[in-house]
Structure formats: C-alpha cells, structure tokens
Amino acid sequence: MIRTLLPPARGSAERTADGLRVLAAVCIVVAGIGWGPASGASLAGVTAGMFLPRLLRVRASFDIAFGIGVLVAVWSSVLQIYITTRWWDVPMHLLTNGLWAAVVYISLVRLGVIADAATLPRPMLSAAVMTTALGLSLGVTWEIWEWIGHTYIDEGILVGYNDTVGDLFWGGVGALVAGLFLPFLTNRSVRPESAPRAAEH
C-alpha cells in the first residue's frame, strides 16, 4: 500500500524532493532540542504536509518548491526572523499561501469535492478564481490561529489590523499567481489518471 501511495522516486528531481522530506524529519529533532517542543511540533506538522505533493504526484519541481517554501517559512518562525526582519513576512505569505492554495485545490479535485478547472469552459480563469478563494480562506484560518496563539500562548506573536490585512492581501496575490500557473505546476490534469471520461455523443 505504501509503495502504491508513494512509488519510488524517478529521476533526480523527485529524489531531491524526497531528500527535502528527509531533511525536514531531521529538523524535527534539531528544532525540538534546540528551540523547544513547540518548535519541534511545528516542524513535525510541516514535515507531514510535505508528503502531500508526493501523494498528489504533481510536477517534481513544484514538489521541491513546496518543500523549500514551507521549510523556510517554519524556520523563519523558529528563528524569529519575522520579528527581527519585519518585511520578510510579505514574501513568505506570498509564496507559502500560493503553494498551499495550489495543493489544497488539487487535493479537493482529486477527492471529487470541486470540479477540475480543465473540464470547464474557461479553465485558467476558473483555476485562478478557485485557488484565490482557497488561498484567502487559508489566510483567514492562519490569522485566527495567530490570534489564538497571541491571546492564549505567547503575546510575542504579532497580530494587529495592518498585519492581518497585509497578510491576507499578499497571501491572496500568491494564491492568484498559483492558480494562473496550475497547468505548469501539475504538468497534467489534476484529475486522477484513472478517472472515467464522460461519454462522447
């Protein structure tokens, strides 16, 4: 079953993506020992998320970009770069929100929850609209978690009107860009390869 879900890597790009997952697993221990259990838990969550592109069998370059993006984002939090370098928050929301929006979109299509934009009359526009909506929803969810963290865990977590609106805006832009480039990111229709085609009349 594992070999079915995670077939052996083919080519150097897929092996690189798998190497990033191994690195992320090592980082769980490093972060947990060096920065505490909360940091280790953050790396564990990111490591689990990094298996999604592999399960979805998207283009290997997208898999690599996703892995690098989420690892940089979580280590930026662990090392408090968001506090020491305030502008760093903008490119991270732009990048990671776009990557996550694309992954969630592809996942929902594979699960049959939403339609594959490739089957609709205006595929590029449909994909862009859907990924942007998903990206904004993910952004709102993230901001809620930030508020919970600030209120109940650590007051050092940055919250505020300008910060929240800015994060949502740049995250939405990243999701829009991801939607426009979905055909390149996946290198195929996002439907399962075994999905039956509609009968031709």
UniProtKB/TrEMBL annotation:
Signal peptide: none annotated. Keywords: Membrane, Transmembrane, Transmembrane helix. The chain crosses the membrane at residues 20-52, 64-83, 95-113, 125-148, 168-185. InterPro entries: YjdF-like (IPR014509). The keyword Transmembrane helix applies. Coiled coil: none annotated. It comes from the Bacteria. The keyword Membrane applies. This is DUF2238 domain-containing protein. It comes from Marisediminicola antarctica.
